[in-house]
Amino acid sequence: MAFNFSKSNLPKQLFINNEYIASKNSKKLELFNPKDGSLVANDVDLAGAEDVDAAVDAAEKAFPAWRKLPGQARREIMLKFADLIQKHSVALAELSRITLGAPIATIGTREPAFAAEAFRYFAGWIDKFAGESFPQDDGFLKIVRNEPLGVVAGVIPWNGPMATACSKMAPALATGNCFILKPSEKTPFAALALGPLIIEAGFPPGVVQVLSGDGSTGALLSAHMRIRKISFTGSIPTGKRIQEAAAKSNLKRVTLELGGKSPAVVFDDANLENAITWTARALTMNTGQICFAATRVYVQEGIYDKFVEGYKKALLEAAKTIGDPDTQSTMMGPLVDKAQFERVSGFIERGKDGQGTLLTGGSRVGSEGYFIQPTVFTNVSDTAEILRQEIFGPVSVLNSFKTEEEVIAKCNDTNFGLMAGVFTQDVNRALRVASEFDSGMVGVNCVSLSFRHTPFGGTKESGLGRENGSAALRAYTDQKTVMINLTY
Ligand code: NAD
């Protein structure tokens, strides 16, 4: 099966057991291009109960042989898959961008490259994720093995379709599990297009399934009695529903990567230009639709006025690059769809109605598509909705503070805990504040970034468990203790 998908030849069927098959469900997904609202497709398969069962059957059947495949063979398949993703990165990026609206210049082929790197990184772990052993001084040799879980599923959001998919698929497959991927109903095409690459790489039938669908498909996966784990990235309310379904079904393992309202703290002694660069980028990257975007910015009184001036200037410059995502000079595209546009616009309008002072932005750009200016509110009260809730668009709140103690209390006064950033030249303060932040990730003189080899995830309601690094391997395995009696 040759890879020949493109904007004019979209993949629309489910991929099960290394074959494209039509859904047994009569419901279809409808997708639009966010740059102008035009219809992209209204006939994309939506997996229902029978389809989910078929995917689980195929994965269960493939599991015994896949888990026993010598590590070297598994690694070669994964490395080949990475090369194939890279080879087709232009087409895969196009298939994401058509309904995501991300600019070619910012995401372009970068997202597939990131996805390919996930496969290379986790392929490299295959012969290094050794178990443990404990000496037989008490007469028993103890061996602790890392065992795959079986059939596992990934349910993902729309904001980074390829990167999120591969952050889950790669460690799951590396550790010998079989995988069912459910992409977001807003961005299914890149995931659905992986079929020919899965086959060409050499994954045996049933090892990887791709089921397009909406929340109803995700709910079927979370409640399924033969799926042993769900790794979910998305909103907090959905994460809670998934954990509940997992508990009520077969107590499947759950990893949750959820929302954020990440603070960035800029002290008087910070390098102003660096602080402005990182905090402005956090807001404009992917049009602010990034879970770890620094959307609460706290600046110490001494440099507040200068920061306000520079931050506003940087965002006004960014606003000049809003436009057609298919044009190379565009750095900020539209929001993903009408619903997201209305949600973000609603926050902005209510924000303008007495929650703070509008520093910049606050309006739609153009009259077609879902473009919005980078928007900043200052002097926002600690109880305001725009300060407390995740908006998931290019909107931030900017407040001043006096003392370290005061700002730490404000930063931690939230149920989110994904990312935080501190900007200062004082290494003692940087490390002190980094340890005080209640968050899964902290940037010092940087913010809103991540690395493949270090744990990614949040505290409190921002999540449960970690992705990336060796933490991801743990998340797809259970430890088994083997005790050998050497006393007779
Ligand atoms: P969402 O929760 O609406 O949907 C995410 C996925 O869950 C989709 O595939 C959807 O079909 C599925 N789903 C919906 N209802 C379900 C149910 N009842 N059971 C199972 N699955 C269901 O989130 P979204 O709008 O697609 O994404 C935005 C959210 O994702 C934001 O809150 C953002 O912060 C979060 N996010 C978090 C991270 C992270 O790593 N922490 C990364 C990206 C996005």
Give a written overview of the molecule:
It comes from Hyaloscypha variabilis (strain UAMH 11265 / GT02V1 / F) (Meliniomyces variabilis). The chain is α/β, with parallel strands linked by helices and 488 residues long. The protein has 2 domains: 14-258, 3-Layer(aba) Sandwich (Aldehyde Dehydrogenase, Chain A, domain 1), CATH 3.40.605.10; 262-461, Aldehyde Dehydrogenase, Chain A, domain 2, CATH 3.40.309. It contains 16 helices and 20 strands. It has a 7-stranded mixed β-sheet with strand order 14-15-16-13-12-17-18, sandwiched between helices. β1 and β2 (19-21) form a beta hairpin. α3 packs across α4 (110-125), α4 (110-125) runs parallel beside α5 (161-174) and α8 packs parallel to α9 (236-248). The protein is globular and about 75 Å long. 53% of the residues are buried. Nicotinamide-adenine-dinucleotide (NAD) is lined by residues 155-159, 182, 184-185, 214-215, 218-219, 222, 233-235, 238, 241-242, 257-260, 291, 390, 392, 418, 458, 463.
The helix tally amounts to 16
**Range of strand content:** 15-25%
Structural Rg: 23 Å
Bound molecules: nicotinamide-adenine-dinucleotide
Strands side by side in the biggest sheet: 14-15-16-13-12-17-18
Q: What percent of residues adopt helix (DSSP H or I)?
A: 25-40%
Number of domains: 2
CATH superfamily of the largest domain: Aldehyde Dehydrogenase, Chain A, domain 1
Which stretches are low in confidence, meaning pLDDT under 50 for 5 or more residues running? none
Tell how many strands the DSSP assignment holds: 20
Mean pLDDT level: 97
Catalytic activity: an aldehyde + NAD(+) + H2O = a carboxylate + NADH + 2 H(+)
InterPro entries: Ald_DH/histidinol_DH, Ald_DH_C, Ald_DH_CS_GLU, Ald_DH_N, Aldehyde_DH_dom
Keywords: Oxidoreductase
Family: Belongs to the aldehyde dehydrogenase family.
